Amino acid sequence: MTRQGSLLQGIYDVEGSDALRRYYDDWAERYDEDLTRADYRTPTRCAEALARHASDQAAPVLDFACGTGLSGLALRAAGFSCIDGTDVAPGMLRQAEKRDLYRHLLVGHPDRPLDLRDRGYAAIVASGAIGAGAAPADCIDWALDTLAPGGLFVLSLNDHSMDDPVYAGRLNRATDAGRITVLEDQDGPHLPAMGLNARVFVLRRL
Is 0.90 topped by the overall pTM? Predict the structure, then answer.
């Protein structure tokens, strides 16, 4: 197995928040290269989905679990100009800072979510950021709690995550509770070189 395949496949076997943070830290310098080789499509899909529904592209957007900034690049290309990023892996944030895309970069803690409710985000984007091998399902609730009514939450869930009922279950409970309305739910390519798809959801906080 190639190093690329090993890192991309191995992430789904990492257990524990601290181990996951260390894994991404160790991967940071090779991350962009590996994801580019795998033809990573989800950041562009998420950014374009947000652009279809956002009323003001100058309003602040949070790139949740921003990693090295691939999602930030896609958001900027889609016309968004005020982007903050957060991630639990300092190594990833050091790479993101080099892109000079973000207004603020915030270091998160894997077990203590940041309270960002006073920052007035019009949207939160979690592109390849929540699911198997990434942030846990309760981050869906955190994002909805962070947004004010009318805010948009763009979320991707890859095939591995869609096979785990906990993730769809969180969305179903939020819908049933009247917290969100689903504006889009589109399946499409995630990492085509690995045969993986992802569903991209656009949710409006009610």
Answer: yes
